[in-house]
């Protein structure tokens, strides 16, 4: 039976003697621990452990409960295996990253405990745990699956969903600073093109922009329409929302799936079953569903930064703004203001365009041609995580730039929602009275986003947002 008394991959037809079955599992874990590159953070590692334990707990992996218990105790006692970020092609599962996780279970490799990296055997001992000797199939069950790409992808999608709301908030602050109109967000317009994400963003913008003195001040101005980056926020942000929601559905199914091989079915009485058990070799480990979803998510999330950078250009370009100083500088010429903040955002947007090339369209055969089509889903996940970081920074740049624009509209007051966002920004980033290094301001605004404080402050003023 594959994975129990045979070799692996291209060696699947090599029979293993009964007395070597435990050594086979140990050797499998050791030989597959070929990860390279930077180490994953503890959050990503813990997510992998949760998902690997979830697969085993579903009861189709042929694994003793002792293995599952040890995985759970790694979480409970803060033991984080050292897992390099690169080395998986996303078919036969995330073999290399999961092998590094499994190494810690057998007391090999390295792990972090209380922030310190040490040999896994030492970390287990300090945590009051003992390594386990793997029995038949257990090594294969630990490394065969999509838990690396799914863990990274799920964390990134959680952040992407929050960034959709942050983008709405940033766009609303920009709209006020640019004296734009909220009329394009009318609920009647949304009903005749009923994409749920579009409706969600438009609802947010209506809540954010109600009762604005700034908007009242230009109710009778001659401008007919705003630029697309303002007027089309529901259509652009909303499309991202819908794509992220679909990707989250895919990963939710994946989280609750059995993705190792072979899969054990008890009491089925199927052909070849022995004692009511049957092992079926298949391909549930293949990462294509996840890879495609995460590639789409990267493209969708990148659009939040793409349109955000265009709003920053509207804010800093004197040919596009009305009543704002060039580059929002206090004394333009002597001071450059936010000139290079826009350039930094443009750089992030351009980098995202490279990162959004889909990894899932590539495949390199491996294992002597036995594994002849692979998903590259691990690369999809890593790219998405970087795109999310870039989007967060781009939105941080828009927030601090737009807040400066709102300052220049005084004594007119913005809407309650925008005022709450502005106040939250000003608690960590002071108004620009003269040129200063802006990298600290961008980092502070990014942390305001990352920690959820911006959304919380705005929701306190206007109620729950989508």
Short description:
With 466 residues, this protein is mainly α.
Unreliable stretches, pLDDT < 50, 5 or more residues? none
- Let me know the largest β-sheet: 3 strands, antiparallel
Secondary-structure element string: HEHHEEHEEHHHHHHHHEEHHHHHH
Averaged pLDDT: 94
CATH fold field value of the largest domain: Fumarase C, Chain A, domain 2
> What amount of the residues lies in strands?
5-15%
Structural class, please? mainly alpha
Number of E-state strands? 7
Mind explaining what this structure looks like?
With 466 residues, the chain is mainly alpha-helical. The chain folds into 2 domains: 9-145, Fumarase C, Chain B, domain 1 (Orthogonal Bundle); 152-254 and 285-462, Fumarase C, Chain A, domain 2 (Up-down Bundle). Helix content is 56%, strand content 6%. The protein is built from 18 helices and 7 strands. The strands form 3 sheets. It has a 3-stranded antiparallel sheet with strand order 2-4-5. A hairpin with a 2-residue loop joins strand 4 (110-113) and strand 5. Helix 12 packs antiparallel against helix 13.
